[in-house]
Amino acid sequence: MAEGGPGVDGSAAVMVNSMTKSYGSTVAVAGIDLRIEYGQVFALLGPNGAGKTTTVEILEGYRRRDGGEVSVLGLDPGRQGAALKPRIGIVLQSTGVDRYLTVAETVAMYSSYYPHPRPVDEVIELVGLAEKRTSRVVKLSGGQQRRLDVAIALAGDPDLLFLDEPTTGFDPSARREAWQVVKNLASLGKTVLLTTHYMDEAQYLADRVAVIAAGRIVAEGTPAAIAGRDTIRPRLRYRPPAGATPPAELTGPPNTDGWIEVVPEDLTTALHQLTGWAIEHGVALDDLQILRPSLEEVYLQLTGDAAPVEVTS
Amino acid sequence: MRAATMTLNQVRYVDKAFWRNPASAFFTFAFPLMFLVIFTALLGNGDIVVAGRQISLSTYYVAGMASFAVITACYNNIAISLTFQRDLGVLKRTHGTPLPAGVYLTARVIHALLVSVLLVAITVAFGAVLYDADVPQGATLLRFLVVLAVGAASFCALGFAVTAVIPNADAAAPIVNATILPLLFLSGIFIPIGDNAPAWLVWIARVFPVKHFADGIAAGFIGTPLNWTDVLVVGAWGAAGLLLAVRYFSWEPRT
Q1: What is the ipTM for the molecules in this complex?
Q2: Model confidence at A312: pLDDT above 60
Q3: In Å, how far is B17's CA from the nearest CA of chain A?
Q4: In chain B, what residues touch A136 (CB-CB under 8 Å)?
Q5: Interface residue A283 vs chain B (CB under 8 A)
Q6: CA dihedral A133, A137, A139, A145 (to 10 degrees)
Q7: How far apart are CA A116 and CA A156, in angstroms?
Q8: I need a labelling partner for A94 at 20 to 30 A (CA). Which of A151, A286, A288, B11 fits?
């Protein structure tokens, strides 16, 4: 994790306390707390309509909160927007740019709005659009336009970047490219708050993850440990050949595909016992897996959408 | 001072984008000249009495098309292009940067003003060469430029204001045309309003800014004294538009 240096008096880049927001009678954010340290890549994970965008847009200064305390880089986005704007970069979920300017002109234009911009060429290089410098925006692919969005957000050399669903609608290669850009940002020591509904994105990019559902934070932690992922006992899953009888303590009713799944007291002992039995009886255990709950399983459980998913280790 | 630099800098980018957009650049410039040729060819023979002076109909149309050009460049262009930019999220993005809203919008006004001056110059030159129309000179030219500046700024302000009632980009052109076309006809931009025009029609035209602006512009071509009331009425509409825009202008898509 890149460290951007802690805030003075131990403050964090983003501190949110009991924040609420309703639209009419619809509660979008029902009292959430967040703390994002300087230099951290923080992912806000949740299904559509969970309150991700509302939360982020309050922090960016686009929306006013109804209640609670919010501090972004030590400033209140509701009242100190003018002081905050030069220090943040925003990639909105869907935004356009003037289609008739070139990539370089667009970045240069947005740079000119900031007191201490980053050199235009450097920004373009950073998002991998160097060979598109002189192309008009209208000629860029979707993935390239998204990278231009990131370039614009970086133009002012912000301390904090907001990325609202930066890869939604991307094909796999465009997503990989976008991820690389975010990794580059992290290596610059920027604090990044990204929202996403892709588990793999959060897992790959984020230092910390918060899962938001129905306007509340339902879990928060590192991607590896969130919601006890690291402490839950792993499952042992295997498929014995037809007719074989595994040790009684390691067996159970097989599912329709013949898989047997057990949660052993001690994994090492169980593995030893199972493989020992297989060798002894000349049984080939071609299908053997050790499973921990995937981030996706944890997420689905937390967001109350516990549809069965195909599990891979 | 920084605001002034930022504004001029922004005008440069607005200008670049304007000229590269074939639709906006071409139609803004082509329409007034096309109409000038058509109206003069169809109706341009003979004279007309305006403000007690007999002038050629071609001069009348040069003045009319100059007004039309300014209204298109300011009211129509600003309202339609800002609605598109609003729906595309360009305005929202800009609103998230430190660029002051006033700088962004002022740059649009200055750009529209520059385009207006260029359009009027082209229309006048075109009219002078092809139709022997009179060209404003000396003190008349100065007064003419004042009318032009007040009119352009006011129609820009009204363009900002009307975006508040335009729900989305698809509706932009229809709403803009629905609000301006009837007034252009009622105000004698396309067809001279004779003395026997119905009184109600004349009164409607008098309430709205188009006729006052057109009369002010025409005064420059005909050489009649400028009626400053016309300038005041146009300016008042502009101020009202500005107030409405400040109150109701939206930086985000309305849906």
Answers
A1: 0.87
A2: no
A3: 5
A4: 20
A5: no
A6: 90
A7: 6
A8: B11
